[in-house]
Design brief:
Layout: H1 12-21, H2 32-50
Helix pairs in contact: 1-2
């Protein structure tokens, strides 16, 4: 199976907004699916902050 093409890199601001958007209210816990998405977003944000990601031209 061939790897899927990489999605265009998102900026740190876009990733932060997506992370904040997961919570409807600070005291409402995330669902299992939301926790998985949170982990993906955090990993993507960390890569952007390390400079591991290049933006598409």
């Amino acid at each position: 199976m061939s790897p899927s093409p990489a999605a265009p890199a998102r900026s740190a601001e876009e990733l932060n907004a997506a992370i904040r958007g997961l919570w409807s209210h600070p005291q409402v816990p995330l669902t299992a699916v939301q926790r998985e998405e949170y982990a993906r977003l955090c990993a993507e944000l960390a890569a952007v902050q390390r400079g591991d990601v290049t933006t598409a031209a």
